[in-house]
Specification:
The complex is a heterodimer of chains A (493) and B (187). With 493 residues, chain A is mainly alpha-helical. Chain A has 21 helices and no strands. In chain A, helix 1 crosses helix 8. Classes of the chains: A mainly alpha (493), B mainly alpha (187).
């Protein structure tokens, strides 16, 4: 079996890619309007929505960066995972019902659409669309880059090619992504999420079991090995320390309700009451797939400290090294596909909201009417992938700046305006616009000028506290806004 | 609702004060970790930044963050009219949540002063508090959301209200369109 390791990994990946292409063709027949393309005609079932929510939250970061961070810093990054449970709750308590109601009231097909309806202000919708595009460009480019690196590593490790450029693997992986995203829009995206999510859950559970069996003495022994080297690394805050970890808890806990690629899914379910079942399924899906994040990082740190495994060339290779050397070949095949799946599921969600912002939201805010929106949605999706790919290859440091721009920027710009604003009639457009501009400004300036914040405090926490404070104080100090009669009625439900 | 948002603002101000404290407080080092002596791709902790004052400021940052989390949950289900039972349940959840966090913190203070390696379900005691307590406790709120959905989130007649709002909106839009067309024809 060991001799077949590399062919098994390659075949698993090919099967996964063929499934994605098949779903793209199937979804093409079901995509007849822009509403189908962007919000699946508000017709998704409970399981599909739940899997879409958790798999696009996990992203490639959870399967590549997450184990790498645990290897590098001990328990610190686990706070991002811990925050997810309260984060899912906050998102559903605040938006599970509300976004779906607004979407139905205004026939909204995107988040900025719903925002413009809520505030009765096109400018606010415009700013949300701009924030989405800025976040999407960085996030999407880093995801596409990660996807290409993973594919290149797999092809080189399996020996199918002796050398291959990053550009070539980007074309291969990008073509599959663009194929199903262009043909089937969000319908293809969410149905591929079912496969992607299932692979992530099964793979992560099996990996967790492997980790416990593999290391003599199981989790206790792993903890002890790390403890003997550096007690803080296996303590609750890892090497980052308490302040930095709690700033992550804050940003990832509250910020979950500001991630447009996640909360847009809450506009897509068939019935409003489905939210009741979607929340627990999403939570359990995320929980199980996060087991890989924690367990692989810890065991790789312990194996290296014990001298059983040579030191990694880079922390980000923790997951791939574990799969290559310690996982059963079939499991390695499943999880390598899961790795790819995690990246793809987030990328297609970003493509979708990015295309909606460019093709629908910004023109609408500027009073430009686009005819044949479905055709243009497909063209923009294609162009956006090309642009993000080029950006990933040629932008240098800018990609790192915009990539780091993702979660915290979305959190600070969107949490006040959407999560709070959709539940508080007193919120004003002026407060919303100020909060968005302030959050974008703070995040961008800190990244651009590489300002160091003490104790590892995440800049996202500072910008989120600032934008929330501005949003609430400006709203309280302004005259109460005059709301549309229907909007007011919906907010009373 | 206004009172809720004043509480919201007060929590935010408290968070700002704690953050300001962290930035201006004299510290041996603001660096949090250093490169591992033997393995350059790993980091190790740096004790210089672990002063007690900083730990206590961090503790309050955590407490206020949890207060804000539960306030967000309350805003999500508070609805138009004040509902005492909702508030009581959420405040109970807040107290338990803060309690777990505080026990975890106390366990950590003991951990850094004690050299012994005591484990609970595979991890040192304070890490176990974090994983099995702070991580899993929000399942209580998930349980509430699922069980009380029809009472606290969406009552069965709410969806009918939505349908009637949408219907009357559509009728109004049609009427407005008709009036516009008539005006155009008149012109």
């Amino acid at each position: 079996m060991e001799a077949l390791r590399n062919p098994i990994i390659l075949v698993s990946l090919i099967i996964y890619m063929l499934l994605c292409i098949g779903i793209g063709i199937w979804a093409l027949r079901r995509t007849k309007s822009t509403s189908d393309f962007f919000i699946a005609g508000r017709n998704l079932g409970v399981m599909v929505t739940a899997f879409a929510v958790f798999s696009c939250t996990m992203s490639g970061f959870g399967f590549v960066g997450g184990p790498g961070l645990v290897y590098k810093m001990g328990m610190s990054s686990v706070w991002m995972v811990i925050a997810s449970l309260i984060g899912f709750n906050i998102s559903f308590f605040l938006l599970g019902k509300r976004l779906r109601l607004f979407s139905e009231l205004g026939g909204s097909i995107s988040l900025p659409d719903a925002v413009a309806l809520r505030y009765g202000n096109k400018t606010t919708g415009f700013f949300v669309a701009v924030a989405i595009i800025m976040g999407v460009m960085g996030y999407l480019a880093t995801q596409i880059l990660a996807m290409s690196i993973v594919l290149r590593d797999i092809l080189l490790q399996t020996g199918i090619v002796e050398s291959i450029s990053l550009g070539t693997t980007m074309i291969i992986s990008g073509s599959i992504l663009v194929f199903y995203s262009v043909t089937g829009g969000i319908i293809a995206s969410v149905y591929t999420d079912i496969i992607q999510g299932s692979i992530m859950i099964i793979g992560a559970i099996l990996i967790f079991i492997t980790v416990i069996i593999l290391y003599d003495g199981g989790l206790v022994s792993i903890s002890q090995t790390i403890f003997e080297d550096d007690r803080e690394a296996i303590g609750p805050w890892g090497t980052l320390g308490m302040v930095g970890c709690l700033s992550w808890l804050f940003v990832f806990g509250l910020g979950a309700s500001g991630q447009p690629h996640v909360i847009t899914k809450m506009m897509m379910n068939k019935k409003v009451s489905d939210a009741r079942h979607i929340l627990p399924i999403s939570i359990f899906g995320y929980f199980f797939s996060a087991l890989l994040w924690i367990s692989v990082g810890l065991i790789m740190r312990a194996l290296v400290l014990k001298g059983i495994h040579p030191e990694l060339t880079s922390a980000d290779t923790a997951a791939s090294q574990f799969l290559q050397y310690y996982a059963h070949p079939i499991l390695a095949g499943v999880v390598f596909s899961g790795l790819f799946a995690a990246i793809m599921s987030t990328s297609d969600s970003f493509l979708n909201i990015g295309a909606a912002a460019i093709m629908h939201d910004i023109p609408k805010a500027l009073g430009i009417e686009i005819k044949n929106e479905l055709y243009w949605a497909r063209i923009i999706t294609f162009l956006l992938t090309l642009l993000a790919g080029a950006f990933a290859l040629y932008s240098g440091d800018l990609i790192a700046i915009l990539g780091a721009f993702g979660w915290g920027t979305f959190a600070a710009a969107i949490v006040p305006v959407v999560a709070i604003g959709f539940n508080w009639k007193r919120a004003t457009p002026l407060a919303a616009n100020t909060a968005i501009i302030a959050s974008l400004g703070i995040n961008f300036l800190v990244k651009l000028f590489k300002i160091t914040i003490p104790f590892g405090i995440d800049i996202g926490a500072i910008s989120l506290i600032t934008s929330l404070t501005l949003f609430i104080s400006i709203s309280l100090l302004s005259a109460p806004p005059k709301l549309d009669k229907d909007v007011e009625a919906i907010m009373d439900i | 609702m206004r009172k809720t948002f004043i509480v919201f603002l007060l929590i935010l101000i408290s968070l700002i004060l704690v953050l300001t404290g962290l930035i201006i407080v004299p510290a041996n080092s603001i660096r949090v970790h250093a490169q591992h002596d033997l393995f350059p791709t790993m980091l190790k902790s740096d004790d210089a930044s672990q002063s007690e004052l900083i730990l206590w400021l961090a503790f309050f940052f955590g407490v206020f963050s949890i207060c804000l989390f539960t306030l967000f949950l309350y805003i999500g289900i508070s609805g138009k009219n004040f509902h005492r039972k909702k508030l009581v349940v959420i405040v109970t959840g807040l107290i338990v949540y803060v309690g777990i966090f505080s026990f975890g913190f106390a366990s950590y203070l003991e951990y850094i002063q004690n050299d012994s390696f005591r484990v609970f379900l595979g991890f040192p005691a304070p890490t176990a508090w974090m994983l099995y307590g702070i991580w899993f406790f929000p399942l209580f709120f998930t349980f509430l959301y699922v069980v009380k959905f029809n009472d606290w989130v969406l009552k069965p007649d709410d969806y009918q209200r939505l349908q009637s709002i949408i219907k009357s909106r559509e009728q109004r839009t049609k009427r407005r369109k008709g009036e516009k067309e008539k005006r155009r024809e008149g012109d």
